[in-house]
Write a structure and sequence with these properties.
With 350 residues, this protein is α+β, with helices and mostly antiparallel strands. The protein contains nine helices and 14 strands. The strands form three sheets. Strands 9-11-8-12-10-13-14 form a seven-stranded mixed β-sheet. The chain has a five-stranded mixed β-sheet with strand order 1-2-7-5-6. The two termini are 27 Å apart.
């Protein structure tokens, strides 16, 4: 089925190649190169004078799901974007757009969730805005959070450890990657996407899976204290496939994966097979993918395993010159090319 190229579709907001093309085609003109890491880097945040700034909007459906709600997502998503660059998140703004007729009881639940998650992450909500739109104009509630953070103290130590093997940039970015770096995922993938799907009305399956949504800033500080972290990113929309292709394209290096090493819960694997989806493309909200210098691999893993948010961490591959793009060795011994997805197969997961 052909798609009208003159209009915006759901694919353009799903975090894959369509969204990447839209940003390059239309929004990239806003880039003027200002800042140490700016809009031109096409990352989840930007940096000016050691201040990290990011913004995110949340349109998840349903707004309450197994293991969380739109409020928890709005904090974790923004906090994690700052943390993945080596920043220490400090404060968030909160913009809420509410549909006329929305229940106050539900709004109170969402705000409590925002408060609880902010305390968990150690950040403050310092400013906000509220708008109400006519019934039917939006789907219940939309939340925008912008976050500000500063260069983490642990980042300086981490960058210094990298100088033993390379000349890294001052932040966690794909240009720091070098052949031999190990790719670690901090836990099982696909949990959030499957939790969202199984919470939706009309979906013909039930899964005993809850969302993994969680702030990862304290975990990131712990592993940067160990050192050897070249880059980190959370595999949200587009999942592992989109994230690793982004790393490969920006670093101009290949990534070789072993499918058998990628942690996936049995319930998630069963749901993925039932729905005919690709686990590599499913979004997550409480996992990080980390590129680690091989000299620090064991120490970083031990630190992750000691934390509840990293207890299922595993090395899933490495950076290499021997392949182009992202290639995965399958469980049956073959090779599979992992391309950038068109978009996340589960729309509106965040």
């Amino acid at each position: 089925m052909s798609m009208n190229k003159d209009v915006i579709t759901l694919l353009h907001g799903a975090g894959g190649s369509y969204m990447y093309s839209l940003i390059k085609e239309i929004f990239y003109q806003l880039n003027d190169g200002f800042g140490e890491i700016n809009l031109g880097m096409l990352d989840d945040g930007s940096i000016v004078n050691d201040i990290v700034l990011t913004t995110d909007s949340f349109i998840v459906r349903p707004i309450f799901f197994k293991g969380g709600d739109i409020g928890r997502l709005s904090v974790t998503g923004t906090v994690n974007d700052i943390a993945m660059m080596g920043g220490d998140p400090v404060a968030l703004s909160l913009g809420v757009i509410i549909e006329e007729g929305f229940k106050k009881e539900d709004l109170e639940k969402i705000v409590k969730s925002i408060k609880d998650t902010s305390i968990e992450a150690g950040v403050h909500i310092i400013t906000g805005d509220t708008k109400v739109m006519e019934r039917g104009s939006i789907d219940k509630i939309v939340i925008n959070t912008s976050g500000i953070g500063f260069r983490s103290r642990q980042l300086d130590h981490n960058i210094e450890t990298l100088r033993k093997t390379r000349e890294p940039l001052r932040w966690l970015v794909p240009l720091n990657l070098r052949p031999g770096d190990k790719i670690i995922v901090t836990g099982s993938i696909g949990d959030h996407a499957i939790a969202i799907l199984s919470s939706r009305e009309g979906i013909g399956f039930q899964a005993n899976i809850v969302s993994d949504a969680a702030p990862l800033n304290k975990l990131m500080n712990d592993i940067m204290e160990i050192g050897g972290i070249a880059d980190a990113k959370d595999p949200t929309r587009g999942g592992l496939a989109d994230l690793l292709n982004d790393w490969s394209e920006k670093s101009k290096l290949g990534i070789y994966l072993k499918e058998e090493n990628i942690p996936v819960r049995d319930e998630v694997r069963s749901a993925v097979e039932f729905m005919g989806m690709d686990i590599m493309e499913l979004g997550n909200e409480g996992k990080a993918v980390i590129a680690v210098s091989p000299e620090f691999e064991k120490d970083v893993l031990n630190e992750l395993w000691s934390n509840p948010l990293g207890k299922d961490a595993a090395v899933i591959g490495e950076v290499t010159k021997d392949v182009e793009g992202v290639v995965m060795e399958t469980v049956i011994g073959g090779k599979r090319y992992i391309g950038r997805p068109l978009g996340d197969p589960v729309p509106r997961i965040c």
